[in-house]
Each structure stands twice: as structure tokens, then as C-alpha cells.
Write a structure and sequence with these properties.
The complex is a heterodimer of chains A (about 375) and B (about 625). With about 375 residues, chain A is mostly helical. Chain A contains 15 helices and seven strands. The chains are: A mainly alpha (about 375), B alpha+beta (about 625).
């Protein structure tokens, strides 16, 4: 402390030369909030919504785990077992028979009274279940590494179908896990494409108006007036039959995305038309900001909440709609594995009454759809931090 | 030979028509008879009624009464009641032999002169006599009327391309005389889809320009909103479609409801020509109530007890649900066997557009290799719980032509032999993933197209994919709509459709071998050759494969052979060619078909074959003898 003593301070305390305003000091905390970068504000707001946070964490985990899905699947999803058709879910018995975890071999025979296979566990023959071990055929982790390391390994000489098996004796749990890869990704592509096109074209029309607006608006009307069914029929004839089911579906979701953008483009256009007249946009223009900056920094944040809401709304229909076009040979179809396909197989009375475990994919669909909704809800609130 | 056949038919009929016992009047008709609206039973029955002995077939004589409920899928399925009713001039019996039914007897000379004897006193369901005039009306005024039949009489009425000479011998006897043998004639009359070579002349004349005034027809034409009298006539002349309640019939039950989407009620035909040994007039059941419901709902409706006899709309996959619902639904589930030659069969298209693959499909070694590489056991075990038969597309055991060697020819999985055959063809090059390469370097990828209606098909193809991979063949499954598939096949663009095997798995010497020869474009093996035959050479291509030419040749021979033994011999040769050539790769046959039967319903066979033709689904099992126990 080298400053000269202030003549007013008889005790020799330091006094700020700028003086002190008590009211300003009270606002200081708030000011720091208001001046903080938007992303920090968004995050701070988002964090307060526990449900959205949990949903986001769950979805992040699911998507990060997708490349390693094989690790969580005890079996190869296509592996059939003719001796275990329609096997009900099996349990792991912990701390039994002197082992940490065991399961029992199951023997099936056809019950001619009910026409269903009957399974009996051989409880005298406990087999140890291995965790984080090597078994079964190799799977590809993250598109590069081949390995057969799995979280749960069925014991030697016995099966372990934690969620039962389907009509060809395939492990439902493994199919569920592997099915997530397609269900959570391929359908998203169509949505991503339609969003990209819709935002760009709608933005151009709304921001520039005039000729651009007229061109985009007419294009929207033309695309919307195209009849959908004949287009799909034409596509079903045009797609080379030798393509695998996944590439067909990928192609179709791309095309659907290319046809599906007008709704969003219209919403974006009207929002832009309204926002363009706002004073802060005018101010930014007068200060010489570039078009890109005005759109990106000043206008976009104002309707991201709308975009997020419509995106999360379209995800449930996407997951369930995978198989909708199968009739025309365009939807996902075997041997691809997805939740929509599994549910499609379970859409009859037999599954509900006799083999209820075939409805297992309902749970992840339910959870994922809800998670996306909660996440979208939280994001929408958080993205409007000043409200 | 033909004379013995004729004698057998006549003798069987006469033996049954010996004496008419006097039975009791049906309770439901008693008020009608008492009120004088209906003549008593003795006057309603033909004096030469067909007397059946249920006991001879392990059945019991029943009692009249009750309402039988069934569910059909679409409004126009009401025509199935003509199929189920199965009153035919001649029909198949339980052993698939032709027997006179509506006719008292049939005499056949040289396989070309057919004399049909009606039952004296036989009447239409409206009480009008059924006579030779009804045959004449059909032959002269319908089949040979240029407005009603622009393309002339149906195929089975032509022998060597020429129509018969029709003669009325008496009120109860008519004769069709061809120059050449016509073996198709009697089987056609016994079909599930009866061609009806007789029509109720007394009813239809009112709509025929030859008999009705133009002035009388004009208001009818206007009222029915049709363009001309021919359309008017066709609209009322719906013997098979069965949706004109005013049209008289000879079937056991008469439809009383015009076409609709909800419900049909059929009542007993008071003039039906069959009685049991005790003199009780058939059918035993008074009424049949048909509801229309979507296919997916049939099983659940059965378990709720909403039907008394159901086979339509049920498949083996429904069996567990049916079994579980037996107590609440008050029925039992029986397993009949499907009568198609193969439940799931693959048809390598010999007319496929791509020359490389076409040459391959035409190589018998390739087809044999495909068949040898298929894992039928897995299909049977996984899809049918092992209850089907692992056989090629061949005659079923119920057929006199059943040959265990043909049924299992190239049908046991033998990957080593399959691979050896493929190597022998020259498909030795392989891609990195083990898929064989065609000589032109393309991958051996086979697209299997299906109608996408049966989940079993998709499962079977999935199992096949695995098995054929071992032989270096990649399979791509492509479910299509039924019509899209058919059109693709007709153009030669379908590579290897999956479908049923031959419709008729129980052929006899009398069965026309239509499914086995290249005569129909709907056969996925050879759509172009079939077109060529059907259009008389105007479209498609002539068969150029020796085996197919031989089949066509044998087919022509069959059509010209009067002698049943000769026709049987032709059948055997055709079946042998198919067994050797593997034109269609059948996977399983004799698949169990669940039938839900009310606990109160009697005389329904416990085990039976369920087939369209011959068999008419329920037809050969004689629904008119089913009855409700007290």
C-alpha cells in the first residue's frame, strides 16, 4: 500500500478514488449474469431443469454408446437358436450355488395342448455367467476395432436370454441393443436434411423478401402439391433391387427429407419477416454488421426454441415410422434390425397374449421419445434466457 | 375304361337313391308348410333324392336346427358360401373321386359324349322345377350369346378347339357330345369355383333380350343404371358371386341379404336334394350368419366365441391364441393340413430379363444346387414347430401320384453337393466376402420378391439367406405388393418370386395339369411362356427349354386323352419331370391349418385336408351334414 494517506481518513484506510454507490453494488451480481456469454446463461438455465438435464445425459450416453453397442449385446442379433424359439425372459441368479451369478440351462418342448413351446430350467446344473468377458462372434467397435469383448457372456453350454427370444429364437435383448443403432440414427438424417433446407430457404425468403421470397414461396407450394403416394411408388420402382435394406432406407429418408422441408421453411420465413422489423436488427444493420452476422447472432437465437420444439416433436414419429413404407418395399426390412421392425413383428394378438416379452422394444422407444421431449422442453426454455 | 367309369358313377347314385324314407319336416319350416306357403317335404324333395349315409363316413345322423356363425374378410366373400355349400353337378367325395351330386348319373362314352341325368322332381330354391331347359338356357342363351359371352364358351367346353353338340334327350337328360375327348369337362364341374353350366331360365329370361321386350327391359336398364341388357342380365345372373337374393339356387343355403359390408343371413334351401338315411332333409343347420371383419381381428373374435366354425383368416401362427381362448370361446381347435403342393416355394424365373442370370436359372444344376442348399429343417422347426413336412414341390400323400422319392428329390440339405454343382457350372470365382461371381464378374446376388402378406415368407427367406450364404449365394429379400409383384413377373423383371407351390397338391388323373405346364403367365417359373400359350402366340415367347417343351407336349396329350389310365400316366411323367428339373423349389408342405369348431358342432372332421381345388375348402367335408348337438 504505497498510496498517500487520504486527508479525510483519519485512521489511514484506503479509500477508492471512484467512490461507492450502494445501489450499483446491489445490482452487480445481476449484471454479471446479464453480461455473461449466452451459452453460459443457457447452460445455467438448462441446469436448473433437472428432468431435461437427466434426459440430456441419458441421450448423450445412448448416442455415445451406439458405436460400442456390440459390447452390451450378449449375442449377435442375427444368431438363431432353433431350440429356443419364443423363450420367455431368463433370470440371472446372484450368489447362488457358491457362485456370484449363475443361470440354468433351459430345455424346450412343444406343448401340444397350447401349441406353444414350454421351457423347463434344469436347476441342478447352475452355470456361471461371465461379466466383461470374451464370447461369441466379433463385433466392430466404432467402425474399426474387431473384438468379441462383451458386458455379459452367456455361460458355456447354456443360453442367457435376459429378455427372451423371438419367433426365430433370436435374443431380444441383443436385437434391442443393436437395433438402437439404426433407430436412433438413420431416421435422423431425413430430419436433419429437411431442417437444413427449410432453415436456409425459409431464412433467405424471409430476410431478403422480394424476388427471393417469391421464388421460395412458389417452390414451397409446388413441393407441397406433389402427391406423395405416386412418388413413393415411382421410387420403389426406381431403387435398384440389389441394394441392401439399410441403404434403401437411408436413400428413402434422404428423399423424404428433400420433400419434407416446406413446412419448416414457411415457419422460418414468417419468423424472419417479423424479426427483420425489430429495432435491434435495424440497429445492427446501421452499425454495418454483415448479413451473416445479423442472421446468425441477432435473429437465429430468437427462434431456436421453435426449431428445437419442432425437431423433438418429429422424432417420435420418425422412430415409429421406420416400417411405415415397408408395404412398398421402401421401409426398413429384415435382415436389418431396428426397434420399429421389432415392434412391427409384435403387432398382433399372439405377441400381446402369449409372448408379451416381444413388446420389450416399447420400453426404449417410450424412454427415448420422452427423453427427447423433456430435453426439447428444457432446451426451449433455456434458449430464451432473458424471458 | 370310360364305360366302367360311367357305370361306377351311375351305380353309386342309383344305390343311394333306392327308396325315399319318410322323415320329419324341419321344425323351422313347419309353420310355412302349415300355412300353405310351402309344399310338404315329400313334394319338395326330388323323387330321386340323394340319400346320404353319414355313418358310412364315421359321422352321425343329426338333427335340424340352429344358426351357424362364421366370419369372412370382405363383403364379396359371400361367394365362399357357394364354395362351402359345394352342391355341384358332380363333386369330389372325401377321397377326391368324382361322384354325381346334383346329377343322378353321368354316362361317358369314349371320353367325349357326356349324358347328364337330372333327378326327377328336383326344384330350384324358389320351387320352380330344375330341368334340361336350364342347361339349354345356359348353353344357347348365355355361353353362346355374342352379347353375354363375347369370347365364346369357356375353355373347358371346347375339345380340340371345337364346341360340343348339345341335345335335350328328355326333361331330365341332356347330352354334350364332342368330336374329341374332353377330359376337362367333369373336373371343371367339380371345381371350387363352379362354372354353372345351368342357369335358372325361368328367372333370368326376364332380363334376356331374346325373351323380354325391349320395352320391358328399358325401365329395368334405367333403374339399375347399366348400359345395355347384357349388363343387366349379368347383374342378376350371379350364381357364383351369390349376392342376388332373388336368384334361385341349388346350394344347401340360400342367401337372403343383398351385398353389404356387415352381415349376411343364409337360410336353408327347402328344396335341397339330399336326405339322410332317416329321411331328414339336409342341410341340418337352418341358418348361416356371416359377419364381415378385418383379417387381423378373426383370431380374437374366435376367442370371444363370436363364431361357430372358422378357418378363413386363421393361420398356424394363431394356433396358440386359439388354444388359449378355447374355454372362453366355447370351441376346440383342430389342425387340418394345407392341400397346396408346397406352402413356401421359390420360382427361379426362366424368363428373367437379364441374360446372365437367365442362363443360370435355366441350368438344372443351378436349380438343384439351390434346392440342396436350402435348410428345410430350420424352416420347419422355426416356423411350424416341426409340424410341417420337409418336402419339395410335389404331390401330397393324399394323391394317388404321391411318390416319396419325388417329394424328397434334392430336398435334403447337402451343402457339399450344392457347392460341387455350382463349381461344376463354372461359378468358381468368389468375391472377398465369399459370394460367387458370375462369368461376367457380377456378384451372384439373387433378389427374392414376395407379396409381403405372410410373415412366414419373410422368415423362411431369412433362413434361406443364411443357408444359401454357405453356398456362396447372396439373397436380397424384397417384399412387394401382390399386384406389383405379379406385374413385375409378367414383364420378366421378377428374379425369383416366393409363393405357394402348385395350388393343387392332391392331383388325380382327372385334374387338369395346368400348374405343371407352361400354359399360364401367373406361374412364376415361366411368365413369358405362359403368355405365349394364353395369347395363342401373340405375346410372350415360345418355350425353348426341352423339358418345358415336353411338359407342354404332355399337357396337350392330357387334354386329348380319353382314357383315365393314360391321363394318370401323363400325370406321372409330368411330376417326374418336375421332380428332376426342380422348376420350383418347395420348402415345406402339409402345413397345419387351425380350424376353430364350436363344441356343439358335430360331424366336423378331426383331421382333414384344407385345399381350394380340389376340395373347395370346406366343400368336400360336406357342411350340409354338420349339425348342432342339443
Amino acid at each position: 500500500m504505497t498510496a498517500a494517506p487520504d486527508p479525510r481518513d483519519r485512521d489511514g484506510h484506503y479509500i477508492s478514488p471512484e467512490g461507492y454507490d450502494a445501489a450499483e453494488a446491489l445490482q452487480e451480481l445481476d449484471r454479471r449474469d446479464l453480461d455473461a456469454p449466452t451459452r453460459r446463461l443457457v447452460w445455467r438455465r438448462f441446469r436448473r431443469n433437472r428432468l431435461a438435464l437427466a434426459s440430456g445425459a441419458l441421450l448423450a450416453f445412448l448416442y455415445l454408446a451406439l458405436p460400442f453397442a456390440g459390447f452390451f449385446a450378449p449375442y449377435d442379433p442375427a444368431q438363431r437358436n432353433a431350440d429356443a424359439i419364443f423363450k420367455p425372459p431368463q433370470a440371472i441368479h446372484f450368489l447362488t450355488a457358491g457362485r456370484f451369478a449363475v443361470t440354468y440351462p433351459m430345455v424346450s418342448e412343444l406343448d401340444l395342448e397350447t401349441f406353444t413351446p414350454r421351457f423347463a430350467a434344469d436347476t441342478g446344473d447352475p452355470r456361471p455367467v461371465r461379466f466383461v468377458a470374451r464370447c461369441g462372434p466379433d463385433w466392430t467397435a466404432a467402425f474399426v476395432v474387431r473384438t468379441n469383448l462383451r458386458l455379459i457372456c452367456p455361460p458355456e453350454g447354456a443360453d442367457l436370454n435376459l429378455l427372451g427370444t423371438d419367433r426365430l429364437g433370436r435374443d431380444v435383448l441383443s436385437r434391442l441393443v443393436i437395433g438402437a443403432q439404426l433407430s436412433l440414427t438413420v431416421g435422423l438424417i431425413g430430419v436433419a436434411i429437411s431442417f437444413a433446407i427449410g432453415m436456409v430457404l425459409g431464412g433467405l425468403a424471409g430476410y431478403f423478401g422480394g424476388l427471393a421470397d417469391a421464388a421460395v414461396s412458389r417452390a414451397i407450394e409446388i413441393v407441397r402439391s406433389l402427391p406423395e403416394l405416386p412418388i413413393w411408388l415411382a421410387l420403389s420402382a426406381a431403387i435398384p433391387p440389389a441394394w441392401g435394406p439399410v441403404s434403401v432406407f437411408l436413400m428413402i429418408s434422404v428423399i423424404l427429407g428433400l420433400l419434407d422441408w416446406p413446412g419448416l421453411a414457411r415457419a422460418v420465413r414468417s419468423k424472419f419477416l417479423a424479426l427483420r422489423e425489430e429495432e435491434y436488427v435495424r440497429a445492427a444493420e446501421l452499425m454495418g454488421a454483415s448479413t451473416g452476422r445479423i442472421i446468425g447472432r441477432h435473429m437465429m437465437p430468437n427462434f431456436t426454441s421453435h426449431l428445437v420444439a419442432s425437431a423433438t416433436l418429429s422424432i417420435p414419429s420418425m422412430i415409429l415410422g421406420e416400417t411405415a413404407l415397408s408395404l412398398l418395399g421402401l421401409g426398413l426390412r429384415p435382415p436389418a434390425v431396428s426397434w420399429g421392425l421389432m415392434l412391427n413383428d409384435a403387432l398382433d394378438l399372439t405377441a400381446v397374449e402369449i409372448y408379451p416379452w416381444l413388446l420389450a422394444p416399447m420400453l426404449p422407444v417410450f424412454v427415448v421419445v420422452l427423453a427427447f421431449s423433456f430435453l426439447g422442453d428444457g432446451l426451449r426454455d433455456a434458449l430464451d434466457p432473458y424471458s | 375304361m370310360m364305360m366302367t367309369f360311367a357305370r361306377r358313377l351311375a351305380a353309386a347314385a342309383v344305390a343311394l337313391a333306392l327308396a325315399l324314407p319318410a322323415g320329419a319336416e324341419a321344425p323351422v319350416l313347419q309353420p310355412e308348410v302349415a300355412a300353405g306357403r310351402l309344399p310338404p317335404m315329400a313334394e319338395r324333395l326330388p323323387s330321386e333324392a340323394l340319400v346320404v349315409d353319414p355313418a358310412a363316413r364315421g359321422r352321425v345322423a343329426g338333427r335340424q336346427g340352429g344358426t351357424l356363425r362364421m366370419i369372412f374378410g370382405r363383403a364379396r366373400d359371400i361367394r365362399l358360401m357357394v364354395v362351402y355349400g359345394y352342391a355341384r353337378l358332380v363333386g369330389y367325395d372325401a377321397d377326391y373321386r368324382l361322384q354325381p351330386d346334383i346329377l343322378r348319373a353321368v354316362e361317358v362314352e369314349d371320353g367325349r359324349v357326356f349324358t347328364l341325368h337330372l333327378r326327377a322332381g328336383h326344384r330350384w330354391s324358389d320351387g320352380h322345377p330344375f330341368t334340361a331347359e336350364d342347361f339349354r338356357y345356359w348353353w344357347e342363351d348365355v355361353a353362346n350369346d355374342p352379347d353375354l359371352s363375347p369370347s365364346g364358351p369357356p375353355d373347358f367346353m371346347l375339345a380340340g378347339g371345337k364346341p360340343p353338340v348339345f341335345t335335350i334327350l328328355s326333361d331330365t337328360a341332356v347330352r354334350f357330345a364332342w368330336d374329341a375327348p374332353n377330359p376337362r369337362f367333369l373336373p371343371a364341374l367339380a371345381q371350387a369355383r363352379d362354372p354353372f353350366i345351368y342357369r335358372p331360365a325361368h328367372y333370368l329370361r326376364a332380363f334376356h333380350a331374346r325373351y323380354a321386350d325391349a320395352a320391358a327391359l328399358a325401365p329395368l336398364i334405367a333403374a339399375e343404371k347399366v348400359r345395355n341388357w347384357a349388363q343387366l342380365h349379368n347383374k342378376f345372373d350371379e350364381m357364383y358371386n351369390f349376392d342376388n337374393p332373388a336368384l334361385p339356387t341349388l346350394q344347401p343355403w340360400v342367401n337372403t341379404t343383398p351385398s353389404n359390408n356387415q352381415r349376411y343371413l343364409l337360410v336353408r334351401n327347402p328344396f335341397y336334394h339330399r336326405v339322410d338315411l332317416r329321411g331328414t332333409q339336409l342341410p341340418y343347420i337352418d341358418r348361416i350368419e356371416i359377419s364381415i371383419a378385418a383379417g387381423g381381428l378373426v383370431a380374437s373374435k374366435v376367442t370371444l366365441g363370436e363364431t361357430d366354425l372358422q378357418v378363413r383368416g386363421l393361420s398356424f401362427a394363431d394356433a396358440p391364441v386359439l388354444k388359449r381362448g378355447e374355454a372362453t370361446g366355447g370351441y376346440v381347435t383342430r389342425l387340418w393340413r394345407s392341400g397346396v403342393a408346397s406352402e413356401i416355394a421359390l420360382y427361379p424365373n426362366l424368363n428373367y430379363v437379364d441374360p446372365g442370370f437367365r442362363a443360370l436359372f435355366r441350368d438344372v444344376r443351378f436349380r438343384r444346387a439351390l434346392s440342396l442348399a436350402a435348410d428345410r429343417r430350420a424352416v420347419n422347426k422355426s416356423i411350424y414347430f416341426g409340424m410341417a413336412e420337409e418336402r419339395a414341390n410335389a404331390a401330397l400323400p393324399a394323391s394317388p401320384f404321391f411318390d416319396p422319392a419325388a417329394a424328397t428329390a434334392f430336398a435334403a440339405q447337402d451343402l457339399a453337393q450344392a457347392n460341387a454343382l455350382l463349381d461344376e457350372i463354372g461359378l468358381t470365382q468368389r468375391a472377398a466376402d465369399g459370394v460367387r461371381l458370375l462369368p461376367d464378374g457380377r456378384r451372384l446376388e439373387i433378389v427374392i420378391e414376395g407379396a409381403g402378406e405372410r410373415p412366414e415368407e419373410a422368415d423362411a427367406v431369412e433362413l434361406l439367406t443364411e443357408a444359401w450364404r454357405e453356398a456362396g449365394i447372396r439373397v436380397i429379400w424384397r417384399p412387394l405388393d401382390r399386384d406389383i409383384l405379379r406385374n413385375a413377373a409378367y414383364r420378366g423383371e421378377a428374379m425369383m418370386p416366393v409363393w405357394y407351390g402348385w395350388d393343387n397338391g392332391i392331383p388325380t388323373a382327372d385334374t387338369p395339369p395346368d400348374g405343371l405346364a407352361p400354359v399360364d403367365q401367373a406361374n412364376f417359373s415361366w411368365p413369358m411362356w405362359g403368355q405365349h400359350f394364353q395369347t395363342g402366340g401373340a405375346a410372350g415367347e415360345a418355350p425353348d427349354l426341352p423339358a418345358a417343351q415336353e411338359l407342354l407336349d404332355l399337357y396337350r396329350q392330357w387334354n386329348a386323352t380319353a382314357d383315365a389310365r393314360g391321363r394318370a400316366e401323363i400325370w406321372r411323367r409330368m411330376l417326374a419331370i418336375h421332380a428332376d428339373q426342380v422348376f420350383a423349389i418347395g420348402l415345406v408342405s402339409g402345413v397345419p391349418q387351425p380350424v376353430a369348431v364350436s363344441r356343439r358342432l358335430m360331424n366336423v372332421p378331426a383331421e382333414a385336408v384344407y385345399a381350394w381345388d380340389p376340395g373347395a375348402h370346406m366343400g368336400v367335408h360336406r357342411m350340409d351334414e354338420f349339425f348342432f348337438a342339443e
